[in-house]
Amino acid sequence: MVRRTFTVLFAAATLAGTALALAQSKPAFDTAKSDAALKSAFTRAPADWAPRLSGDATMQACSASNNAPATDIAAGIKARELATIKYPADGKLLGDWKAGERIAQSGYGMRFSDYPPANPNGGNCYACHQLTKAEVSFGTIGPSLLEYGKIRKFSEADTKLAYEKIYNSHATFPCSLMPRFGSNQVLSIEQIQHLTALLMSPDSPVNK
Amino acid sequence: MLRARDTAKTLSILATLLSFALLAGPAVAQGQDVVERELDKYRRMMKSDPWANPGNLDADRGAALWKTPAGPKKASLEQCDLGKGPGKVDGAFAELPRYFADADRVMDVETRILWCRETLQGIDNAEYLKSPHPAGGAPVKDVGAIATWIASRSSGLKFAAKQDHPKERELLALGENLFNRRMGPFDFACTTCHSDSGKRIRLQPLPFLAKPVEARKVIGEWPAYRVSTTHVMTMQHRILDCFWQMRLHQIRMGSEVSNALVAYLVKTAEGGEIAAPGMKR
Predict the structure, then answer these.
(1) Which residues of A fall within a CB distance of 8 Å from B29?
(2) Is B173 near chain A, with CB under 8 Å?
(3) Is B190 a catalytic site residue?
(4) Nearest to B219 by CA among B168, B178, B160, B174
(5) Are B180 and A56 in contact (CB under 8 A)?
(6) B162 and B95 in contact (C-beta within 8 Å)?
(7) A7 touches chain B (CB under 8 A)
(8) Average pLDDT in the B16-22 region?
(9) Is A127 on the interface with B (CB under 8 A)?
């Protein structure tokens, strides 16, 4: 019995020691080095593309923690990102799900070959999410959103949450892998209303 | 030559199948499985008959370019030192990227070829670097063809870059940091797509590149012939394509950033077998 306790304790101590050694073996990387390297790597980019390389405080915190921020940092991210969300002037969060489906299918926009823009930006939702039964070409980086509204009983609170997640996912899930479509001005408020309708309208194919 | 034409025909059939699968949308999940299965069969066929891969034609072109005098100095690249001594090509790719004292920097195969063009042949690379990668349907450009040949001369060997010189270690650390760094209007990092097993973008499977067992399977296939664009794509081109999706700009070929990422990927794939040129979707 004593011996077993000793073994368990010993194993625990070894594990803790290994974890500590791992944490210590990696000194923090000086990100100023990546800043400089990036600056010299994209010499052909127009001047107004420079901010794309820097990343704001939220991205820096997410990158530094491998997208698993400590509790206090996560709370800071949530508050900061929630404050960037803008809502439709008329308060209506649901747009047209048919327009939403087109935005969910399109991956167009903001690539260096997309200038001058020939089409509105897309959300490319299907790249990462399953949404409708009809579309079988969907990615799996994000969770399936099949029957998203139905599961949530089309509630008003969940409609607002859906709008917020599309506008800025970090307000709900700090260091989410999803782009901040509204805050980063990828999609307009109107486009986000259409996508909210795709998720939350009872007649949307997502909920059929 | 007849063989190459047959190959081209088979490939165009595959490409057509593939585009149907991608465009048809509904009810093609099974179709996609069929395409994947057929592609797998095709890859196996290619392994048993190495002449079936059109990428080998580019490797041959690369071998010819290597020997052909060019540039203001009318010199060939035959005295180019890829790390194992001037002119030693066999097995050199397996030990790249590495630190080169003459250039005082770490270089991958493509960066080293650019360096040799400049120093041995007197070629100013500025013009070449304006458009170093082929458009869809066009063959890989000269440096890419030479890189394809050099890589093919390490086929069957394992990635064994030492990366222990202080400058190599420094570049490796930069590569790891960049791999995790989120940026651009979509907040993407390499890890957005490549930090988990079994994930897909649409129907395209994504390798978990920070995980050695998965990196070893795929990194050794580059440069690779891509059925969808019908040309050989090199690693520098592959990285540019990722940055395009990340909504960043055209990365300079041979830049510190692309070399750092190559260094990181090769380190993760250390011990994996080189099978270049490979064959991709």
Answers:
(1) 136-137
(2) yes
(3) no
(4) B160
(5) no
(6) yes
(7) no
(8) 44
(9) yes
- Virtual torsion, Cα A49, A52, A53, A59, nearest 10 deg: 170
Residue A109 · residue A119 · CB < 8 Å:
yes
Give A124-153 pLDDT, tens digit per residue: 999 999 999 999 999 999 999 999 999 999
Between vectors from CA B52 to CA B49 and to CA B55, what angle results, nearest 5°? 125
Instruction: Read off the pLDDT of residues B1-14 as tens digits, 9 standing for 90 and up.
Output: 334 444 444 445 44
Q: How far is A3 from chain B (nearest CA, A)?
A: 38
Q: Are B213 and B271 in contact (CB under 8 A)?
A: no
* Ramachandran quadrant class, B169 (left: phi over 0; alpha: psi -120 to 50; beta: rest): alpha
Start-to-end C-alpha separation, chain B? 23
The helix/strand/coil state of B75 is strand
Reference B239, options A42, A192, A120; nearest CA is A42
Which CA distances in Å does B263 have to B95, B106, B170, B242? 11, 9, 10, 16
From the candidates B80, B116, B190, B242, give the one annotated as an active-site residue. Answer: B242
Place of tokens 């209303």: A193
Reported as half-sphere exposure (CB side, CA atoms, 13 A), residue B165 has a value of 16
What whole-number distance in Å separates Cα of residue B7 and Cα of residue B165?
Answer: 44
Please identify which residue in the block is written with the tokens 């929630």.
Answer: A82
Q: A46 exposed, middle or buried (CB, 10 Å; 0-12, 13-18, 19+)?
A: exposed
Chain A partners within 8 Å of B184 (Cβ): 52-53
Searching chain B, which residue's CA lies closest to the CA of residue A177?
B192
Alpha-carbon dihedral B110, B114, B116, B120, rounded to 10 degrees: 160
Q: Which residues have C-beta within 8 Å of that of residue B23, sequence separation ≥ 6?
A: none
pLDDT confidence of residue A12:
47
A116 preceded by a cis bond (ω within 30 of 0): yes
C-alpha B86/C-alpha B77 separation (Å) is 9
Kindly determine whether residue A177 and residue B192, on different chains, have CB atoms separated by under 8 Å.
yes
Angle at alpha carbon of residue B261, lines to B257 and B267, rounded to 5°: 145
In this predicted structure, which of B53-57, B148-152, B235-239 has the lowest mean pLDDT?
A: B53-57
Burial class (CB in 10 A: 0-12, 13-18, 19+), B273: middle
